[in-house]
Amino acid sequence: MSGATGRRVRAKAAAPVTAAAVDSLGGCDHVDAVAIDLPPGTTAVEFTHTVLAATPEWVHCLLTTRDTLMSPFGLHTQQRVAPQDIRVVPGAKLGPFRILTVSDEEVLAGDDDKHLCFRTSFAVREGVRGTEGVCTTVVRFTRAYGRAYFKAIQPFHNLIIPRVVARAVRERDESV
Fold it and tell me: What per-residue confidence (pLDDT) applies to 101?
């Protein structure tokens, strides 16, 4: 998948950034990552904001459907945050994410629910082709049905994350 500037989202070949996420969860049951080339000097805060602000309406609709279906089971639901209101600071609740830690190199976000806990690392590092942003998802199942739940949503996760990351960088490139 490539954007207007030729930046490619690398999903299968992306080396995940997991240390802080795995430490935070005390282990993991699933890891995946996507990476994309970024302009030099981009910070993890900028990368995170760009990705979260670029979530398309169809993803918000899927999340609303998920919340409607899962709230009777006591699973966490989320509140949509307008792009202009996104603040990447520790403690901020941004859709499905609570921002846990923030540095120039990595923003760690996530949530702990009764069926599974997840962390998403928005990291910026030097890659083979220059500066790259890496969005890593780390999941730890806390109950048996957490694994089944994740298997059910995994196709959506695998569809959404690369597209949102590509869209975010494409929109940023077009606005510059």
Answer: 98
Global confidence as pTM: 0.86
Determine phi and psi for 39, rounding to 5 degrees.
-65, 145
Q: Which of 95, 113, 93 is nearest to 25 (CA)?
A: 113
Q: What angle separates helix 144-175 from helix 44-53, to the nearest 10 degrees?
A: 100
Contact 5, 171 (CB under 8 A): no
